[in-house]
C-alpha cells in the first residue's frame, strides 16, 4: 500500500479561494476520541488514553450495571472569531451522519454559523452533540423530502443513506430522498441565492468499463438492480442539479465521492472497513466476499472534508471526483486491518491470544469489481490531493472503534 505522507499530520485544510479551512488535527481528534472511563468494581480506568480536555465530553461505563454516564463539560472548543463579512450561514443536510459530522466540526471551528438538518435515519445526535448550545450552532430534525425554509449562504447537501444495507432497507424512500430532497434543497438555493454543493458518488459510474474513472465517463449502471435506488437516485440528483444551473442560474458544485472511511462511521452499516475492524477487534473471523481480488480505493474522511470545502469555495462547477487513487485488493486491505488492530491491541496492553482468520463468502450481486478515481481534475482545479495514507486512517479508526467497544456501544 502506498502512502501519501508517512510523518504525522499536524493540520488539515487549505487556505485557498478566500476560505481558510485550516484546523489542528489534535483539536478535531479531541471531538471524536474523547476519554472513556470504564468502572470495573472499584477500579476506574481511562481505556482510550485520550487526554481529558477542558472542553468536550467524557463518559464512564459501569461494567457491573451496564450503564453509561455522560459528562458534558460546559465549555466549547475555541472557534475562530470571524467578522460578519466573512462569517457564512451554512446549511448541512445529513450533518449528523458520518461525513456530515466531520464537515460540521470543521465549519464550526472555522467560526461559521452552521445549521444541521437531519432525520436521524442513519445519523445520530451524538455525532454533533458536542456543539449543542453553541451560539453558532443549530440542529433541526427534518426530512429533506419535505420543503424547508431558512436563509443561508451555502448549502452542503449530504442527506441520503450511503451504505447498501441502509439504502436498500427502503429503496423507494432512498429514491425519494435523492430526488425530492435534492429538488427541495435546489429550490431553497434558488430562492436564497445560496451556493449549492451535492455529495454525489462514484456509484454513478456503476460497474465501470474504464479504469480509473474520469468525470467524463458516463458509467455502466444496472437501472433495475438492487443498488439502482442509490445509483440512479444520485444520477437523477446530478441531472436536477445541472437543470437548476442551466434554467435558473443556481450556483452549483458536484462532488463524486469515492469510498471514504474514518471515525464515526456507523459500525453496523455493513461497509467493508467497519466490518473488518470490528471483526478483528472482537477476535472474530474476517469475512471477505468472493476471492478478495476485487479492488477498492479508500480515502480518509479528513481528506474528503478538505476536498468538499475547496470545491464549495472554488470556481469549478463541473463534477469533481474526490477519492484516494491508491488501489488495492480487498484481501490486501483485510490483512492490513488485521496487522493494525494487532498493533493497537498490543500498544493498549491487551493482545489477542491468536490471530483472527480471513474467511471467504459469496459475492453479493452487482458488486463492482474495480473502482478507482482519476483525480486529475481535483488536483488541477482545486489543488487538492489526499494527504492521509490508508494505514494512518485505519489506525485512527481502530482507536475510535476500540473505545466504542470498551464502553459497550459495539
Ligand atoms: N461515505 C462514503 O464512502 C460515501 C461515498 C460516496 C458518497 N457519499 C455521500 O456522502 C453523503 C454522506 O454519506 P455518509 O457516509 O456520511 O452517510 P450517513 O448515512 O452516515 O449520513 C447520511 C445522513 O443523512 C441523513 N438522512 C438520510 N436520509 C435523510 C432524509 N430523508 N432527510 C434528512 N436526513 C436524511 C441520515 O440520518 C444521516 O445523518 C451521502 O450523500 C452519500 O451518498 C458517501
From TrEMBL:
Recorded metabolic or biological pathway in which this protein acts: Nucleotide-sugar biosynthesis; UDP-alpha-D-xylose biosynthesis; UDP-alpha-D-xylose from UDP-alpha-D-glucuronate: step 1/1
Gene Ontology annotations for the cellular component aspect, listed alphabetically: Golgi cisterna membrane
Keyword Magnesium: no
Catalysed reactions, as listed in the record: UDP-alpha-D-glucuronate + H(+) = UDP-alpha-D-xylose + CO2
Annotated transmembrane regions: none
Native organism: Naematelia encephala
Family indicated by similarity: Belongs to the NAD(P)-dependent epimerase/dehydratase family. UDP-glucuronic acid decarboxylase subfamily.
Membrane topology type: Single-pass type II membrane protein
PANTHER family named among the record's database cross-references: UDP-GLUCURONIC ACID DECARBOXYLASE 1, UDP-GLUCURONIC ACID DECARBOXYLASE-RELATED
InterPro entries found in the cross-reference section: NAD(P)-bd_dom, NAD(P)-bd_dom_sf, UXS-like
SUPFAM superfamilies linked to this entry: NAD(P)-binding Rossmann-fold domains (SSF51735)
Cofactor(s) needed by this chain: NAD(+)
Basic and acidic residues bias: start-end ranges: 362-380
Main location: cytoplasm
Enzyme class name: lyase
Name of the protein described by the UniProt record: UDP-glucuronate decarboxylase
Known EC number: 4.1.1.35
Gene3D superfamilies the record matches: NAD(P)-binding Rossmann-like Domain (3.40.50.720)
GO BP terms, alphabetized: D-xylose metabolic process; UDP-D-xylose biosynthetic process
